[in-house]
Amino acid sequence: MSKRESQALDQAVVDQAIHWLVCLRFNQADEQTQRSFEQWLQQRPEHLLAWQRVDALGDDFAGIPAQLARQTLNASNAGMHRRQSLKLLGVLATVGGAAWLGRDYTPLPALLAQQQSNTGEQRHFQLDDGSLIQLNSDSAVDSQFDAQRRLIILRRGEIIVNAGADEHSARVRPLWVQTRDGVIRVLSGRLLARQRDDGTLLAVQGGAVNAFPGSTQTLAGSGSHIVLGANQLLFTTDGAHEYGGNGLDVWGWSDGVISARNMRLRDFVMELSRYRPGVLRCAEEVADLRVSGTFQLADNDQVLALVAQSLRLRVDYRTRYWVTLTAAS
Q1: Which long-range contacts (CB under 8 A, 24 or more apart) does 193-198 make?
Q2: Which of 323, 318, 319, 322 is nearest to 308 (CA)?
């Protein structure tokens, strides 16, 4: 871990970053708000570092109803101490999450997970049973092994699991992957699981798995759905259905690329934004243009330049951390 990554931050700076997160996530940001945010980012290096860390929790806080988040923010603006407002928001996310989503996944376990990746980083590691794990950008996992079973818990983001042979165990223990939407029994092959806003995306290469939507407490369930070969599945706590995709090669990131085939520009930009800090978006008038190609994730500024050249777009950098694709004039 670098010195910068391990740097302790002043709580007041973290509070400010969370305040901006709520502003940008739950309110229609006008030009003045955007300028103020950019000015705040540039004031001190610690501001950018705090924003990068807090922005990684954006998907977890996205589960909070927008109206409730706005009320919390308005209370802060009306005179409530910011720390009190943020404390209330944290309690709502931690304690009330199950009431909104029927899920027990909150930001805190992801922050304390055994294995984590930063924004734009892919990590590889091996578990004691020989299983190989790949973490995509901004992801977190835990593992819990005992004499009866092997359990991998996806706390945030996306993983690929290559099941190990479990040779050091007296018997081969079943391998499970738990997500906020259910559990997956890995029978063989290579598994990809990604937690999205609309459910958990599941894909398999060269093997088979059983998915049990909604079964997060007991590693069993009814209504299992078998996924074979190259099929893809999207499941929630209520059930599962085949996922046709949006033109993205879901496995591409494991090779360090983002690969698209006739993908809407809006969808492509949203996907690329997972690999860079700050705000990346496209203008409404170009959102339905189509992107095809394979691009190296290591330099996503170059990806933006290549896409812009191909589609005759302009890349507007208000700052490095606020970028918009618009139609070329």
Answers
A1: 193/154, 193/158, 193/159, 193/161, 194/136, 194/157, 194/158, 194/159, 194/250, 195/59, 195/154, 195/156, 195/157, 195/158, 196/234, 197/59, 197/62, 198/234, 198/236
A2: 323
User: Structure tokens of 105?
Assistant: 């996944």
Q: Is 6 inside any structural domain?
A: no
Reply yes or no on whether the pLDDT at 87 is more than 80: no
Q: Are residues 30 and 63 in the same domain?
A: yes
CA distance 137 to 159: 9
What is the spatial distance between Cα 208 and Cα 231, in angstroms, rounded to a whole number? 10
Q: Of 235, 280, 243, whose CA–CA distance to 258 is shortest?
A: 280
Whether the model clears a pTM of 0.85, i.e. scores above it, the answer is no
Of 69, 86, 110, the position where a domain reaches its end is 110
DSSP assignment letter at 249? -
Choose one of 82, 110, 138: the last residue of a domain.
Answer: 110
Residues 216 and 139 in one domain: yes
Is position 3 within any domain? no
Distance of CA 234 to the CA centre of its chain: 15
Give the whole-number percent of the chain exceeding pLDDT 90: 37
Q: Identify whether residues 231 and 145 lie together within a single domain.
A: yes
Q: How far is Cα 316 from Cα 234, in angstroms, rounded to an integer?
A: 34
Residue 136 has pLDDT above 90, yes or no: yes
Domain that holds residue 28: 11-110
What is the CATH classification number for the domain harbouring 259?
3.55.50.30
